[in-house]
Amino acid sequence: MNVDIGNALASVASPGVSRDSLERLDERVADAHERIEAGRANDEHGYAALNLPERTDPDEIRETVAPVADADALLTVGIGGSALGAATITNALAAESDVEAVYLDNVDPAWISTQLGRLPLERTAINVVSRSGTTAETLANFLVVRDAFERAGVDWTERTIVTTGESGPLRDLSDRRDLPSLRVPDGVPGRFSALSAVGMVAAAVCGHDLEALLSGAAAEADSLAGSLFECPAYAYGTTAYALDARGAGTNAMMPYAESLDTYAEWFAQLWAESLGKDGLGQTPVRALGATDQHSQIQLYRAGPRDKLVSFVVPDERDDRSIPATDVDDLAYLGEATLGELLSAEFEATEASLAAAGRPNVRIELERVDEYELGGLLYGMEAACVLAGELYDVNPFNQPAVEWAKRATRGLLGEGTFEEAESVTEKTELRVER
Ligand SMILES: O=P(O)(O)OC[C@H]1O[C@H](O)[C@H](O)[C@@H](O)[C@@H]1O
């Protein structure tokens, strides 16, 4: 990936970052890069994620999924980092696959029943993913899925691949039922695990090029350097950090490709869960071009000066002509293609924000394919780790998510949790029709 941070400079935008400030920040980037490289060299917790391009073994993954290589549908049961990386990859590349990839990453009963009712279970692979093996949503959904397969007379043990940690209930189940399984690599938090088996099992079942994904990521790893002016990932991470420090507390991730819609959701977890600590952090917003030009751009251009817009735009895309029309006002469309229209809309929106002094950054891909996607995933992960160094927070833990988990367990009667008591003590001011 390449980035263009020109529209985030103080000479263009307010808030904006001056070239002098970037030069001063670059000294901190150099230190941060040294810390990152040391963490990678020692395979330290979290930093180990930036070693995945050479650690992940495509052959091992393909061998493990061989029993379900004939699947017409893939049902991934996981949540958070155990689903979004895989979903980003298979949704971005869905046009290249005959396998329908469905993600059960919520416990909405109506939605789960709809998915289980419509899939050909006898030709569906089950990809259950959980690092801990104890996540309530994942285990609940897996129990429901297993039951649905049994009721349909399909042996779920012949359709299931397990990706989990070294120990835990899922590991025990996998061992007990001799299920094909892979390890969530040690030291790699879920939101940083897309380039491990966590994201790559789904990619393999859908027939995508694992080597190309890893090769694109490896090229991004090779670009990591001690200066933001030589490293697109660090340029992005530094600019986002600097804009937040100057008031842009929101970061709208706005890809101009429908196939990258899920990527924006993956980025939201990566950015929020890694940097939202100690009262710090920049709020990620999922947006999509051109759709959100008719939804959110009004706010981005004329609302508070508290947002950075991060565009992701492929240079090449499959295209389709717009038929000629005899409607005078629309005749100009007939000479164009949909791709030309989308590209023109992106350039117009980018310029519109710059003209209003609203900071924005362009993340450029050659196209949306395995190589470029691997580079984008790796690049954003490296940008996030760099930003964590600049914020001086630990980007690899998520302590704040535990409170609600304890409350949930208390509400479901698993034990006494003071958090569950707080639920019953809710302050109410009800307004009823
Ligand atoms: O992979 P698991 O252990 O099931 O965890 C799944 C997800 O839930 C956790 O609560 C964290 O918020 C996420 O970072 C993690 O990816």
Provide structural commentary:
The protein is α/β, with parallel strands linked by helices and 433 residues long. It folds into two domains: 2-37 and 216-391, Rossmann fold (3-Layer(aba) Sandwich); 50-208, Glucose-6-phosphate isomerase like protein, domain 1 (Rossmann fold), CATH 3.40.50.10490. Helix content is 46%, strand content 12%. It has 17 helices and ten strands. The strands form two sheets. A five-stranded mixed β-sheet has the order 1-10-9-7-8, sandwiched between helices. Strands 3-2-4-5-6 form a five-stranded parallel β-sheet, sandwiched between helices. The longest helix has 23 residues, at 19-41. It starts with a strand and ends in a 9-residue tail after the last helix. 47% of the residues are buried. The protein binds 6-O-phosphono-alpha-D-glucopyranose (G6P). Belongs to the GPI family. This is Probable glucose-6-phosphate isomerase.
Rg (CA only): 23 Å
| Overall 3D shape | globular
Tally of helical segments: 17
Class inferred from helices and paired strands: alpha/beta
Tally of extended strands?
Answer: 10
The small-molecule ligands in this entry are:
6-O-phosphono-alpha-D-glucopyranose
Strand order, main sheet: write it out.
1-10-9-7-8
CATH architecture tag of the largest domain: 3-Layer(aba) Sandwich
Tell me the series of helices and strands, N- to C-terminal. EHHHEHEHEHEHEHHHEHEHEHHEHHH
The biggest beta sheet, please? 5 strands, mixed
Count of discrete domains: 2
CATH topology of the largest domain: the name is: Rossmann fold
What is the CATH superfamily classification of the largest domain?
A: Glucose-6-phosphate isomerase like protein, domain 1
Mean pLDDT: 97
Distance between the termini: 52 Å
**Low-pLDDT segments, ≥5 res:** none
> Can you identify the CATH class of the largest domain?
Alpha Beta
**Percentage beta strand:** 5-15%
Helix content: 40-55%
Active site: 273 (proton donor), 294, 405
Subcellular location: Cytoplasm
Keywords: Cytoplasm, Gluconeogenesis, Glycolysis, Isomerase
GO cellular component, one term: cytosol
